[in-house]
Amino acid sequence: MNWTEIIAGVPVLAVGDAARAEILGVEYDSRAVRAGSLFVAMRGETTDGNRYVRAALDAGAVAIVTDSRESFAFADARGVPAALIADGRRALAEVSANFFGHPERQVKLCGITGTNGKTTTAFLLEGLLNSVARKCVLIGTIETHVAGAVRPSAHTTPESRDVLAIFADGAAAGATEAVMEMSSHALQQERVWALPVDVAVFTNLTQDHLDYHGTMDAYAAAKARLFEGVGAAAPRVAVINADDAYAAVMVAAAKDCETRWSYGVDGAADFKASDVVLRAGATSFVMATPFGDAEVTSQLTGRVNVYNLLAAVAAAMGRGLTLDEVVAGAAALPPVPGRFETVTNALGFSVVVDYAHTDDALRNLIVLARELAGEARVITLFGCGGDRDKTKRPKMGRAAGEGSDVVIVTSDNPRSEDPAVIADEALAGVRETGNMSVRVVLDRAAAIALAVNEARAGDIVLIAGKGHEKTQTSHGVAMPFDDVAVAAAALREREAKA
Ligand SMILES: CC(=O)N[C@H]1[C@@H](OP(=O)(O)OP(=O)(O)OC[C@H]2O[C@@H](n3ccc(=O)[nH]c3=O)[C@H](O)[C@@H]2O)O[C@H](CO)[C@@H](O)[C@@H]1O[C@H](C)C(=O)N[C@@H](C)C(=O)N[C@H](CCC(=O)O)C(=O)O
Ligand SMILES: Nc1ncnc2c1ncn2[C@@H]1O[C@H](COP(=O)(O)OP(=O)(O)OP(=O)(O)O)[C@@H](O)[C@H]1O
Ligand SMILES: N[C@H](CCC[C@H](N)C(=O)O)C(=O)O
Ligand SMILES: [Mg+2]
């Protein structure tokens, strides 16, 4: 693609004298630049892409898009086509859309935001769309589904350039739908700039990421941007959890959406569940919808999944599926990896791996386990992520201490922090509840073995926080680690001794 085509329609403040370049790729990271790349310099929080313009040119960049007059003049002086723009991330989205041939216009996009339930709802919605033979791209925390392949995900919501590259691959393989988790980081940083969202979903808002957003109101405002449209028109359909304390904020933001649907269990809602029956691996409820009532059954476990099912069903109906189609589709959907995933064993107790890494998620998980365990015990193992919201640590500790018979505090992903310090902060919360059955075992594998060896018939062991993750990041290094595999190994060892 030539230089003129790639900056067509992009609001540029100035363009350099050089006008000829054949662009073979668009990159926002100098380390990814190859011969023929266009490099877009973005200002970040750790560094500034403008510091890498020289490195990008040395690596073969043939054009530069920048918000810095210095970088612009530097590239221009080297005879490289350059554009001066106001905002790097927005420009990245605009040039990438041109480069990839506007694939965002070829798929109908459902965007899902909220603190918890995005991944689950996204998988459910993808499953419903697939059940009526619509090809669908999925972008989210665990993995990316595109063109019949599964790719690992580095972020929940990638940069616009990467989203558009995925959409282009999907559209080329016949996808007409896309389902995407939209994290608050991505909405705030405008990684989703100029993506037209057809159906927008809000799951819930509880504490997380305050290290980044500062306050709950700022966090809510970032999420609300999905409903306003980020550099694009407001979504056509808004699907909002009416039972959530922040519902009104999302409804207000959705004022320009053509259709606003609420969903919930507690109060009035367009998609409302009643007569909820919760069993392990079998959830059912009666669902009232604007299109009639039906009984929904699902293999997923727990009350939170009633919400996720309602959200996915409403979004699917927003995309034109019928009531019969969503009911049939929902019954067939498998659980999501790392979300209330049971690790089988012959010892008579349950071991569950779950991605609960906020106090709200942990509390919900423990309440569910309590219900399922009856008179038996709930043994909860958890840790807290390093380099993330520190204020949630004692809160997670309180949630664990309040509902569990036995608590094991361990490491999650300490990242660059001292695991012992993180554990102390979580332990303080457990101690506040007066729960005395608490142990700290920093080595996660040893902690999992302890939990498994502690369990008696009927008990439920909860291994919380890492869910599907396949690595543990400690001292800045990611090493292979898989809660399900580690638990399975510990169970085999105990079975062998039994
Ligand atoms: C806080 C945050 O979200 N940071 C993300 C953000 O960083 P940033 O804007 O501060 O960028 P920066 O690191 O200062 O770099 C500025 C620019 O210089 C470029 N650069 C940098 C170095 C270099 O050698 N050459 C170069 O060109 C960078 O590519 C970037 O374009 O943009 C970067 C490029 O895409 C991301 O890698 C980075 O993710 C960091 C590593 C991260 O940990 N993000 C997490 C918190 C995150 O995004 N999480 C959410 C939510 C998770 C959930 O709850 O589901 C997610 O969507 O994944
Ligand atoms: N609707 C919900 N409401 C509250 N908690 C939920 C809900 N759905 C799932 N959870 C809990 O939150 C955990 C994470 O769920 P999921 O991965 O679907 O959310 P997410 O929003 O994608 O999270 P992340 O932002 O970390 O990717 C689950 O393991 C479960 O414990
Ligand atoms: N996307 C979330 C995931 C947290 C998962 C948990 N295992 C942790 O490392 O804190 C985050 O980056 O905050
Ligand atoms: Mg997710």
List the helices and strands and how they pair.
Elements: H1 3-6, E1 12-15, E2 25-27, E3 37-40, H2 53-58, E4 63-66, H3 69-77, E5 82-85, H4 88-99, E6 108-113, H5 118-131, E7 136-139, E8 143-146, E9 149-152, H6 160-172, E10 177-181, H7 184-189, E11 197-202, H8 210-213, H9 216-228, E12 237-241, H10 247-253, E13 259-264, E14 271-279, E15 282-289, E16 292-298, H11 303-318, H12 323-332, E17 341-342, E18 350-354, H13 359-373, E19 378-382, H14 392-403, E20 406-409, H15 419-432, E21 438-440, H16 444-454, E22 460-464, E23 471-474, E24 477-480, H17 483-497
Parallel strand pairs: 2-3, 3-4, 4-5, 6-10, 6-11, 7-10, 11-12, 12-13, 13-14, 18-22, 19-20, 19-22, 20-21
Antiparallel strand pairs: 1-5, 7-8, 8-9, 14-15, 15-16, 17-18, 23-24
2,6-diaminopimelic acid (API) binds next to loops.
Task: Kindly describe this structure.
By secondary structure, the protein is α/β, with parallel strands linked by helices. The chain is built from 17 helices and 24 strands. The strands form four sheets. The chain has an eleven-stranded mixed sheet, sandwiched between helices. The protein has a six-stranded mixed sheet with strand order 17-18-22-19-20-21, with helices on both faces. Helix 10 (247-253) links the parallel strand 12 and strand 13. The longest helix is centred in the middle third of the chain and has 16 residues, at 303-318. The mean pLDDT is 97. The structure holds ligand UAG, adenosine-5'-triphosphate (ATP), 2,6-diaminopimelic acid and magnesium ion.
